[in-house]
């Protein structure tokens, strides 16, 4: 696993963060302590040091497990508070599925690999209830995507800015806005 700087903090964190919302089965689902420990240990053995948690994950069980799991090496782990993810649209899912089929890799691997190509540093949170899920997610770190695949994924996820952005892009509006001098104005 490689590392990235976390913003301007100077902290060196793994290029994937382990999400621990599934640590504990208090909510009727999730990983029991022994499986959570396997996931945690495998993540650390893979070089992971960035962990997402929150005090309300599985009623606090997740943080209790982590406190125990980190004994003796807490100083080498970077903890992150609660983070949320946006819902993906149907067209993004379709694009990810297409690339998944082309590469012979899981959709999760494609989505996680895609994040590594963003123009700004993105540290994905990988959550796993089972060791096999963690292993599948970690396999994304050695998946290379072609320029064409990236273009299709980026186009599928492009956000329509709508009004007023689209309005200001019109030639007529720009001619009024800049008094017909747009081409002469130095940026």
Radius of gyration (CA) equals 21 Å
Mean pLDDT: 86
Number of strands: 6
Low-confidence stretches: none
The CATH topology turns out to be TIM Barrel
**Domains (count):** 1
Largest sheet, described in full?
A: 4 strands, parallel
Order of helices and strands: EEEHEHEHHEHHHH
The 3D shape can be described as elongated
Count the DSSP helices.
8
Q: Which secondary-structure class do the elements indicate? A: alpha/beta
Strands of the biggest beta sheet: in what spatial order?
5-4-3-6
Strand coverage percent: 5-15%
Kindly report the name of the CATH homologous superfamily.
NADP-dependent oxidoreductase domain
Q: In the CATH classification, which architecture applies?
A: Alpha-Beta Barrel
Kindly describe this structure.
With 187 residues, this protein is of the alpha/beta class. The chain has a single domain (3-157), classed as NADP-dependent oxidoreductase domain (TIM Barrel, Alpha-Beta Barrel). Helices cover 40% and strands 10% of the residues. It has eight helices and six strands, in the order E-E-E-H-E-H-E-H-H-E-H-H-H-H. Strands 5-4-3-6 form a four-stranded parallel beta sheet, with helices on one face. It has a two-stranded antiparallel sheet with strand order 1-2. Strand 4, helix 2 and strand 5 form a beta-alpha-beta unit. The radius of gyration is 21 Å and the shape is elongated. The protein starts with a strand and ends in a 10-residue tail after the last helix. The mean pLDDT is 86.
